[in-house]
Design goal:
The chain is of the alpha/beta class. It has one domain: Metal-dependent hydrolases (TIM Barrel, Alpha-Beta Barrel). It contains 9 helices and 10 strands. Bound molecules: zinc ion (ZN). The site of zinc ion (ZN) has 5 residues, from loops.
Length: 283
Protein backbone atom coordinates (compact mmCIF):
# COMPACT_ATOMS: atom_id res chain seq x y z
CA UNK A 1 0.00 0.00 0.00
CA UNK A 2 1.47 3.34 -1.09
CA UNK A 3 -1.18 5.70 0.21
CA UNK A 4 -4.08 5.54 2.51
CA UNK A 5 -7.13 7.78 2.71
CA UNK A 6 -8.16 7.34 6.33
CA UNK A 7 -11.55 9.04 5.99
CA UNK A 8 -13.87 8.80 3.02
CA UNK A 9 -17.47 7.96 2.17
CA UNK A 10 -17.30 5.88 -0.98
CA UNK A 11 -20.65 4.34 -0.05
CA UNK A 12 -22.46 7.67 -0.62
CA UNK A 13 -24.74 7.93 -3.64
CA UNK A 14 -22.41 10.55 -5.13
CA UNK A 15 -20.36 7.56 -6.25
CA UNK A 16 -23.15 5.34 -7.57
CA UNK A 17 -22.27 6.08 -11.19
CA UNK A 18 -18.58 5.28 -11.11
CA UNK A 19 -17.72 3.58 -7.81
CA UNK A 20 -16.17 0.60 -9.58
CA UNK A 21 -13.93 2.81 -11.72
CA UNK A 22 -12.71 4.67 -8.66
CA UNK A 23 -11.94 1.39 -6.93
CA UNK A 24 -10.10 0.24 -10.05
CA UNK A 25 -7.99 3.41 -10.06
CA UNK A 26 -7.35 2.96 -6.35
CA UNK A 27 -5.98 -0.50 -7.02
CA UNK A 28 -3.69 0.87 -9.71
CA UNK A 29 -2.49 3.56 -7.31
CA UNK A 30 -2.05 1.02 -4.51
CA UNK A 31 -4.35 3.15 -2.37
CA UNK A 32 -5.94 1.97 0.88
CA UNK A 33 -9.20 3.45 2.18
CA UNK A 34 -11.09 3.62 5.41
CA UNK A 35 -14.76 4.26 4.73
CA UNK A 36 -16.61 5.92 7.55
CA UNK A 37 -20.01 5.07 8.93
CA UNK A 38 -22.34 7.92 9.86
CA UNK A 39 -25.29 5.91 11.20
CA UNK A 40 -26.31 2.27 11.55
CA UNK A 41 -27.25 1.81 7.89
CA UNK A 42 -24.16 3.50 6.44
CA UNK A 43 -22.04 1.54 8.91
CA UNK A 44 -23.41 -1.66 7.39
CA UNK A 45 -22.68 -0.30 3.92
CA UNK A 46 -19.03 0.49 4.62
CA UNK A 47 -18.46 -2.92 6.18
CA UNK A 48 -19.93 -4.51 3.06
CA UNK A 49 -17.66 -2.43 0.80
CA UNK A 50 -14.65 -3.46 2.87
CA UNK A 51 -15.51 -7.15 2.55
CA UNK A 52 -15.59 -6.78 -1.22
CA UNK A 53 -12.24 -5.04 -1.49
CA UNK A 54 -8.74 -5.62 -0.26
CA UNK A 55 -7.09 -2.54 1.25
CA UNK A 56 -10.45 -1.26 2.41
CA UNK A 57 -11.62 -0.98 6.00
CA UNK A 58 -14.58 0.47 7.88
CA UNK A 59 -15.53 2.41 10.97
CA UNK A 60 -18.97 2.27 12.55
CA UNK A 61 -20.85 4.95 14.46
CA UNK A 62 -23.31 7.83 14.51
CA UNK A 63 -22.32 11.25 13.14
CA UNK A 64 -23.39 14.17 15.36
CA UNK A 65 -25.46 15.81 12.62
CA UNK A 66 -27.64 12.72 12.45
CA UNK A 67 -28.38 12.70 16.15
CA UNK A 68 -31.75 14.26 15.38
CA UNK A 69 -32.80 11.12 13.58
CA UNK A 70 -30.75 8.67 15.63
CA UNK A 71 -31.02 10.33 18.99
CA UNK A 72 -29.40 7.43 20.71
CA UNK A 73 -26.48 5.17 20.03
CA UNK A 74 -27.89 1.66 20.10
CA UNK A 75 -24.80 -0.10 21.35
CA UNK A 76 -26.25 -3.64 21.02
CA UNK A 77 -26.78 -3.20 17.30
CA UNK A 78 -23.28 -1.90 16.72
CA UNK A 79 -21.88 -4.60 18.97
CA UNK A 80 -23.53 -7.17 16.78
CA UNK A 81 -21.70 -5.75 13.77
CA UNK A 82 -18.40 -6.16 15.62
CA UNK A 83 -19.22 -9.69 16.77
CA UNK A 84 -20.12 -10.73 13.22
CA UNK A 85 -17.01 -9.05 11.86
CA UNK A 86 -14.79 -10.88 14.33
CA UNK A 87 -16.02 -14.19 12.96
CA UNK A 88 -14.50 -13.30 9.61
CA UNK A 89 -10.79 -14.01 9.30
CA UNK A 90 -10.36 -10.64 7.55
CA UNK A 91 -12.09 -8.51 10.11
CA UNK A 92 -12.67 -5.05 8.73
CA UNK A 93 -13.99 -2.83 11.50
CA UNK A 94 -11.10 -0.63 12.60
CA UNK A 95 -12.73 2.16 14.56
CA UNK A 96 -15.77 3.80 16.13
CA UNK A 97 -17.27 6.90 14.49
CA UNK A 98 -17.42 9.27 13.01
CA UNK A 99 -18.76 10.65 16.21
CA UNK A 100 -18.35 13.87 18.09
CA UNK A 101 -19.93 17.32 18.23
CA UNK A 102 -21.03 19.62 15.43
CA UNK A 103 -22.28 23.02 16.54
CA UNK A 104 -22.08 24.42 13.02
CA UNK A 105 -25.05 22.45 11.77
CA UNK A 106 -27.43 22.98 14.70
CA UNK A 107 -30.99 23.37 13.43
CA UNK A 108 -32.72 24.91 16.42
CA UNK A 109 -33.83 28.53 16.27
CA UNK A 110 -34.01 29.34 19.94
CA UNK A 111 -31.13 29.11 22.36
CA UNK A 112 -33.10 26.48 24.24
CA UNK A 113 -33.55 24.27 21.19
CA UNK A 114 -29.89 24.56 20.35
CA UNK A 115 -28.90 23.69 23.88
CA UNK A 116 -31.04 20.58 23.78
CA UNK A 117 -29.51 19.51 20.43
CA UNK A 118 -26.05 19.96 21.93
CA UNK A 119 -27.03 17.80 24.88
CA UNK A 120 -28.24 15.01 22.62
CA UNK A 121 -25.01 15.20 20.64
CA UNK A 122 -22.97 15.01 23.84
CA UNK A 123 -24.89 11.99 25.08
CA UNK A 124 -24.48 10.12 21.78
CA UNK A 125 -20.78 11.04 21.70
CA UNK A 126 -20.24 9.80 25.26
CA UNK A 127 -21.99 6.53 24.49
CA UNK A 128 -19.64 5.99 21.56
CA UNK A 129 -16.54 6.85 23.57
CA UNK A 130 -17.57 4.23 26.13
CA UNK A 131 -18.30 1.75 23.35
CA UNK A 132 -14.86 2.36 21.81
CA UNK A 133 -13.13 1.92 25.15
CA UNK A 134 -15.00 -1.31 25.85
CA UNK A 135 -14.16 -2.68 22.43
CA UNK A 136 -10.59 -1.37 22.42
CA UNK A 137 -11.11 0.52 19.17
CA UNK A 138 -9.84 3.96 18.13
CA UNK A 139 -12.39 6.76 17.83
CA UNK A 140 -12.83 8.75 14.62
CA UNK A 141 -13.85 12.16 15.87
CA UNK A 142 -15.87 14.68 13.91
CA UNK A 143 -15.67 18.13 15.45
CA UNK A 144 -16.99 21.38 14.07
CA UNK A 145 -17.10 24.61 16.07
CA UNK A 146 -16.95 22.51 19.23
CA UNK A 147 -13.28 21.84 20.00
CA UNK A 148 -13.44 22.99 23.61
CA UNK A 149 -16.38 20.72 24.43
CA UNK A 150 -14.91 17.70 22.62
CA UNK A 151 -11.61 18.11 24.47
CA UNK A 152 -13.42 18.57 27.78
CA UNK A 153 -15.36 15.33 27.34
CA UNK A 154 -12.27 13.36 26.29
CA UNK A 155 -10.42 14.71 29.32
CA UNK A 156 -13.17 13.48 31.62
CA UNK A 157 -12.79 9.96 30.24
CA UNK A 158 -9.03 10.18 30.39
CA UNK A 159 -9.34 11.11 34.06
CA UNK A 160 -11.77 8.27 34.78
CA UNK A 161 -9.42 5.79 33.14
CA UNK A 162 -6.44 7.16 35.02
CA UNK A 163 -8.33 6.70 38.27
CA UNK A 164 -9.13 3.10 37.36
CA UNK A 165 -12.84 3.89 37.34
CA UNK A 166 -13.67 2.18 34.07
CA UNK A 167 -13.85 -1.58 34.18
CA UNK A 168 -15.73 -4.65 33.22
CA UNK A 169 -15.81 -7.58 35.60
CA UNK A 170 -12.42 -7.74 37.25
CA UNK A 171 -10.63 -5.95 34.42
CA UNK A 172 -9.70 -2.32 34.89
CA UNK A 173 -9.36 -0.64 31.52
CA UNK A 174 -5.92 0.76 30.73
CA UNK A 175 -5.86 4.51 29.95
CA UNK A 176 -4.45 3.72 26.47
CA UNK A 177 -7.84 2.33 25.52
CA UNK A 178 -8.97 5.89 24.92
CA UNK A 179 -7.33 6.76 21.62
CA UNK A 180 -8.15 7.80 18.09
CA UNK A 181 -8.02 10.54 15.52
CA UNK A 182 -9.62 13.95 15.19
CA UNK A 183 -10.61 14.09 11.53
CA UNK A 184 -10.72 17.17 9.26
CA UNK A 185 -8.68 18.97 11.83
CA UNK A 186 -9.40 22.69 11.76
CA UNK A 187 -8.69 23.73 15.32
CA UNK A 188 -5.87 25.85 16.69
CA UNK A 189 -2.34 24.72 17.57
CA UNK A 190 -3.46 24.69 21.22
CA UNK A 191 -6.34 22.35 20.36
CA UNK A 192 -3.97 20.12 18.40
CA UNK A 193 -1.65 19.95 21.39
CA UNK A 194 -4.53 18.84 23.61
CA UNK A 195 -5.40 15.98 21.25
CA UNK A 196 -1.79 14.86 20.87
CA UNK A 197 -1.33 14.92 24.65
CA UNK A 198 -4.35 12.63 24.99
CA UNK A 199 -3.00 9.93 22.70
CA UNK A 200 -4.91 11.18 19.66
CA UNK A 201 -3.71 11.93 16.15
CA UNK A 202 -5.16 14.56 13.83
CA UNK A 203 -5.87 14.29 10.12
CA UNK A 204 -5.81 16.86 7.34
CA UNK A 205 -7.95 17.10 4.20
CA UNK A 206 -7.54 18.75 0.79
CA UNK A 207 -8.24 22.06 2.50
CA UNK A 208 -4.53 22.32 3.31
CA UNK A 209 -3.79 22.52 -0.43
CA UNK A 210 -5.57 25.87 -0.75
CA UNK A 211 -5.97 27.41 2.70
CA UNK A 212 -2.71 28.98 3.83
CA UNK A 213 -3.79 29.22 7.46
CA UNK A 214 -3.17 25.49 7.88
CA UNK A 215 0.52 25.80 7.22
CA UNK A 216 1.60 26.56 10.79
CA UNK A 217 -0.66 23.85 12.11
CA UNK A 218 0.73 21.18 9.78
CA UNK A 219 4.23 22.36 10.66
CA UNK A 220 3.45 22.00 14.35
CA UNK A 221 2.01 18.46 14.32
CA UNK A 222 4.77 15.80 14.14
CA UNK A 223 4.63 13.80 10.91
CA UNK A 224 4.32 10.61 13.01
CA UNK A 225 1.10 11.88 14.61
CA UNK A 226 -0.92 12.97 11.59
CA UNK A 227 -2.88 11.39 8.76
CA UNK A 228 -3.98 12.38 5.28
CA UNK A 229 -7.62 12.02 4.28
CA UNK A 230 -10.02 13.25 1.61
CA UNK A 231 -13.41 13.20 3.39
CA UNK A 232 -14.67 12.60 -0.13
CA UNK A 233 -17.09 13.36 -1.70
CA UNK A 234 -16.43 16.70 0.08
CA UNK A 235 -13.61 19.29 -0.18
CA UNK A 236 -11.58 18.33 -3.23
CA UNK A 237 -7.96 19.49 -3.17
CA UNK A 238 -6.27 21.73 -5.74
CA UNK A 239 -6.48 21.26 -8.76
CA UNK A 240 -9.89 19.63 -8.42
CA UNK A 241 -11.51 22.30 -6.24
CA UNK A 242 -15.26 22.66 -6.51
CA UNK A 243 -15.65 19.21 -8.02
CA UNK A 244 -16.59 15.97 -6.35
CA UNK A 245 -13.68 14.67 -4.34
CA UNK A 246 -12.51 11.06 -4.50
CA UNK A 247 -10.13 8.94 -2.42
CA UNK A 248 -7.45 8.86 -5.13
CA UNK A 249 -6.90 12.59 -4.63
CA UNK A 250 -5.39 11.92 -1.23
CA UNK A 251 -2.11 12.00 -3.09
CA UNK A 252 -2.48 15.81 -3.30
CA UNK A 253 -2.85 16.00 0.46
CA UNK A 254 0.22 13.83 0.99
CA UNK A 255 2.12 16.04 -1.43
CA UNK A 256 1.19 19.20 0.47
CA UNK A 257 2.15 17.61 3.78
CA UNK A 258 5.55 16.65 2.33
CA UNK A 259 5.98 20.25 1.15
CA UNK A 260 5.17 21.83 4.47
CA UNK A 261 7.16 19.29 6.50
CA UNK A 262 10.08 19.68 4.07
CA UNK A 263 10.49 15.95 3.54
CA UNK A 264 10.47 13.97 0.31
CA UNK A 265 7.16 12.78 -1.07
CA UNK A 266 8.40 9.24 -0.53
CA UNK A 267 9.14 9.76 3.11
CA UNK A 268 5.76 11.39 3.72
CA UNK A 269 3.75 8.65 2.00
CA UNK A 270 5.65 5.93 3.84
CA UNK A 271 5.22 7.55 7.23
CA UNK A 272 1.53 8.26 6.67
CA UNK A 273 0.80 4.66 5.74
CA UNK A 274 2.69 3.52 8.80
CA UNK A 275 0.70 5.92 11.01
CA UNK A 276 -2.58 4.52 9.71
CA UNK A 277 -1.43 0.95 10.18
CA UNK A 278 -0.43 1.68 13.74
CA UNK A 279 -3.59 3.50 14.84
CA UNK A 280 -6.15 1.35 13.05
CA UNK A 281 -4.21 -1.92 13.35
CA UNK A 282 -4.78 -2.63 9.67
CA UNK A 283 -4.45 -6.24 8.60
ZN1 LIG B 1 -16.77 12.21 7.16
Amino acid sequence: MRYIDIHCHLNFKDFDEDREEIIERAKENDLGMINIGTGLETSKEVIELAYQNKNMWATIGVHPIYTNEESEFRAEEFKKLIDDDKKDENSKIVGVGECGLDYFHLKGETEEERESEKNIQKKVFRDQIEFAIENSLPIMIHCRDAYDDVIKILKEYREKLNMGEMKRGGEIYAPERLHGNCHFFAGTIEHAKEFLDMNFTVSFTGVITFAEQYKELVKYVPLELMHAETDSPYVAPVPFRGRRNEPNYVEKVVNRIADIKEVSFNEAEKQLVENARRLFKLN
